[in-house]
Design brief:
Elements lengths: L1 H24 L19 H5 L27 H5 L7 E6 L2 H12 L6 H11 L1 H4 L4 E4 L4 H7 L3 H13 L2 E2 L4 E3 L11 H8 L3 E3 L4 H4 L3 E9 L3 H12 L4 E9 L9
Parallel strand pairs: 1-7, 2-3, 2-6, 6-7
Antiparallel strand pairs: 4-5
Helix pairs in contact: 5-8, 9-11
The structure holds zinc ion (ZN).
Zinc ion binds next to helix 2.
Length: 258
Amino acid sequence: MLEGGRRGQAGDALRRMVGTITDLVVPPLCLSCHAPLASHDALCPDCWGRIDFIQPPLCDRLGLPMPFDTGGVMISAAAAADPPDYDRARAVARFDGIMRDLIHDLKFHDRHDARRLFGRWLTQAGAELLAEADMIVPVPLTRVRLVGRRFNQSAILAMEVSRLTGIESEPLALLRTRKTLPQVGLTRQQRRQNVAGAFAVATARKARIKGTKVVLIDDVITSGATAGACARALKRAGAAGVDVLALALVTDGILVST
Ligand SMILES: [Zn+2]
């Protein structure tokens, strides 16, 4: 115990020292507006206040905010009319304003400095799903897009959540089996057709997926078509359950039903 305690204190001291050195090299700045801050990997109060965090009560299947709490598990009209292929989805915030910019930076500008904050947010928003999960699997990019962007942002997010929760991440569990068009500009039906059968569990990973509860990680849930196609592939391979955890959820038009 004493040894462990000493090691813990030494570790804390080292972390403080590294923290101080990092502060000297790169002073902590707001990840969005670059205003000076007291600590790294954070947003200033003003930017924080402009993120539309998704708060309960939620539709249990789609993770959409519900107008009032009726107690127990609630299913939105949208989920009842057109149930998703995944079990439950949760997202940190609505896809607008600062959240949209932060995700865009992660995706296209190689700006990974928000990843620690994203990891903390995902772990909080997905606490219920992660408590039951055996494995974390990121949504894969196509080869072409992987080369163009040089990295898979969902795999980076999955790695962060894995680091914070201790749940294993399997970044190579899902493969794209054919090319798909970018989903942007497609209708809900076209999005489904575009990604139908486009994913499969890698043969070498099939035995690991069988019987496990998977949390799929994506950056944004738009129509839920990509997450749905991934969930079908995981379930075909014998996954006991597939939930989806994302940074943002598009809540205007496509998913919301009244
Ligand atoms: Zn700011």
